[in-house]
Every structure is written in structure tokens, then in C-alpha cells.
Amino acid sequence: MATAQSGVGSLAAIGRLKELRERFWFTLGALLVFRLGSFIPVPGVDPGAMLSLMERQAGTVVDLLNMFSGGALGRFSLFALGVMPYISASIVVQLLSYALPAFIALRKEGESGRRTLNQYTRYGTLGLAVVQSFGIATALLSSQMDGGMAVVTTSAWTFMFSAVVGLSAGTLFLMWLGEQITERGLGNGISLLIFAGIVAGLPGAIAGTVNMAQSGQLEPLVVIFILALVVAVTAFCVFMERAQRRITINYARRMAGGRAPAYMNNSQWLPLKLNMAGVIPAIFASSLLMFPATVATWFGENPDLRWLSRVAAYLNYGQPLYLILEAGLIMFFAFFYTAMVFNSQETAENLKKSGALIPGIRPGKATADYIDAVLTRLTLVGGAYLVAVCLLPALLTNAYGVPFHFGGTSLLIVVVVVMDFMSQVQAHMVSHQYESVLKKANFKGLSKS
């Protein structure tokens, strides 16, 4: 209840505070530009043939990318690649910043190192965008619909050039637009662009569910159950994303005065998130499992590669083998990514240098082992939570034939982005209230110094 009330208060504050209102309208305008750009097609593609091709890609990584791009890939627009090349490049650079000595040194340099890593991310985004656009253009050139209708309507070289340049430029523009939203708007710009693409598919999903209910394909009780499940799972995701394990830490402070030294204990907490890996395990697991289905769709017609079709049949979305492998990969990547981004030995050393200790645990290696044990249990629960949420869409589709994928990566992204957006709104409110107090106390000049 308190969270809902704070959210309503944050939204009401947008209309009262000028700076907050300007940031909100800038963010809304940028998202509108993104949606308009997703309808500008790359020249040389037959829209009807492209729609038929996308229907054949259901359950593949192409379908996943189309969802993240808000349907732009299905229309083969300039924003068909979305921001996925940037997401992939940023994840790779982030992992390297914890694995390679050169990147570790850059991470520890502060602001200058962060700018260098961001530049590497941009270069990686350009490289991935060129490679992915070239691959998509090549696949479309070789694709042919039933009846001999080709997807590409222009010459091969003309289409290849326009596709690679157009899609790469669209991805770079979205990267720049996301950075502008982060700097001048509210929330993380790249996450908001993905959020807008996912939310854009909600009206169609709701309309499809209503049509199925009206035609009798879904019972009214099933629709009510699905609605209640949507609310419950969303609330559960919010709770789990906010969940923390606080480890008590004592700081011993020496008190002056008196003949014998006296010490005062100052207790604080070391917060450890339950789901420290975020949505990355779900993205990695889905991409790896959908890759065989995508390859089989493109090359399965080759007589020498018919075995790809049999492999893809076992790995189709919702199949038992798919669900088992997805659960295992999510758990693996949850532990792997958490181990990469959180160094318990470094944390223990920092606590020791600052004179802090965990009650009942000796400083140094014992502290690192204790933090490792706590983090392992947290990651086990967090990984199980990710598995449950990510398997929910397949279970709903198999059991009730729900015409949309509720849950999984899309739900996690929506929840995290909305929570981050509301946190930034509340931070601006606190900053404004702080400046108002200083102004009333005639300390405004000191606050600027």
C-alpha cells in the first residue's frame, strides 16, 4: 500500500515541478520518435512476404528480437535491430571489466575509465549492428515464400547496401537517443526503449484475448484467472526485485577522554540483492535456446542439414526439453554473472581496511567465505525465482492457449524499468525539497558552492 501511494505521489509531482515536467515530456517525446521510426521501412522488401516470413519464425530468436523492437523487425524498418546490439556489447564489456586486467584497471580509474569503457561499448555496438544487419539481409535474399514469392524486390547488391547502412544507422540513432533520455529525461534510456517496444504489443495481446473470450475459445473463468495471475505475478516480481539480505556490520570507533580508551560500536548493513543478476540470465538462456531453431529455419531445407530440423523440433518453444534446458541455463547464468560482478574477497578486504567486521566472523578470509555462503543461498533463491517467471509464458500457452507471452524476460524488464523510473522521480522530488529548505534557510548560496 505504501509503495502504491508513493508511486501516485511521484506521478502527481510531475505536474507540479517544472524540471521534472520538462524531463517527463522529453522522455515521452523521445519514445514517440522511437515508435514513429519503427514504421519507416527499409527499401526493397515486400511487406506481405515479410509478414508471412515472420509468421514462420514464431518461437525463434527472430521472434524474440521482434518483440524487443516493438514489431519493427516484422516490418523491417530502420529500427529493426532495436537496441539489442548495444545490450549485447554492453554486457560483453561489463563482463570483460571484471575478467581482463586491462579492463579491470579501466573500471577502477573512475569517470575517465567509465568513458573509455562506454566508447568501447559504442564500437562494439557498431560492429554487432553491421554483422547482424548483414546476416539478416543475406537470410532475406535467400528466403522465398510458398508460390515462388521473394521477400526482396530489388537487386541483391542494392538491397544489401541499403539494409546494412539503414539498420546500422538505426541502431546507432537509438543508442544516441537512449543516452539523451538518460541524460535529459527520466530513467535509463536504453531500458525505456526496450520497455516501449514490449508495451507496444500489449493492446494487440489484450484484443486477442478478448476476441478469444467472445468466440468461446477461452472460458470467462479462465480469463478472470489469467487477469488475477497477471496481477499476482507482477506484484511478486516487484517484491522479489526489491528483496535484500542485510548483513550487519559493526564499525568500532574510539572515544576520546578518560584514562582508559573507550569504544563505541556503530552498526550498519551490507545489502545484498536477492536477484543480483537481473534479467541477464533470462536473455542469455533464451538466446542460446532459440538459436538452433533459427538456424534450422534458415538452412533446414538443405538435404545435408536435415538433422537441424529434428534438433529444432525438440527445442521448439514450450517443449519439455526446451523448458528443462532453459531452467538449467538460467540457474547457470545466475550464478556465473553474480560471481563475475561481485567479488566477496575484495568486499572482505575493504571491510577490513575500514575497520568493520561482521559480528561473530573473523576479518579476512573468514568474512569472504561467510559472504560467499550467504550469496550462494541468495542466488539459489533468485535463480529459482527467475526460472518460475520465465517458464510461466510456456505453461500458460500450453495449458490455456493464451495468445500472448506474459512473463519471462519481457515482464522482468517492464518491472525493473518502471521501478527505476519511479525511483528517479522520487529522487528529483527529494532534491527539490532539499533545495527549498536551503532557500528558506538562506543557505542557497552555500548549496551552490
In short:
This protein has helices at 2-16, 18-37, 47-56, 61-68, 72-75, 84-96, 101-107, 111-142, 156-184, 189-199, 202-215, 220-242, 280-299, 306-314, 320-341, 344-353, 365-400, 408-440, 444-448, and strands spanning 244-255, 262-273, 356-357.
- Nearest-integer average pLDDT: 79
Give the name of the CATH architecture of the largest domain: Orthogonal Bundle
Low-pLDDT stretches: none
Tell me how many strands there are: 3
Rounded radius of gyration (Å): 25 Å
| Strand line-up of the largest beta sheet | 2-1-3
CATH class of the largest domain: Mainly Alpha
Q: Per the principal axes of the C-alpha atoms, what is the gross shape? A: globular
Topology as H/E string?
HHHHHHHHHHHHEEHHHHEHHH
User: Separation of termini?
Assistant: 40 Å
User: How would you name the CATH homologous superfamily of the largest domain?
Assistant: SecY subunit domain
CATH topology descriptor of the largest domain: Preprotein translocase SecY subunit
Strand content: 5-15%
Please give the share of residues in helix: over 70%
Structural class of the helices, strands and pairings? mainly alpha
The count of domains is: 2
Largest sheet: 3 strands, antiparallel
Number of DSSP helical runs:
19
Descriptive account of the structure:
By secondary structure, the protein is mainly α. It folds into two domains: 20-198, Preprotein translocase SecY subunit (Orthogonal Bundle), CATH 1.10.3370.10; 201-406, Preprotein translocase SecY subunit (Orthogonal Bundle). The protein is 71% helix and 6% strand. The chain is built from 19 helices and three strands. A three-stranded antiparallel sheet has the order 2-1-3. Strand 1 (244-255) and strand 2 (262-273) form a beta hairpin. Helix 12 packs across helix 18. The longest helix has 36 residues, at 365-400. 32% of the residues are buried.
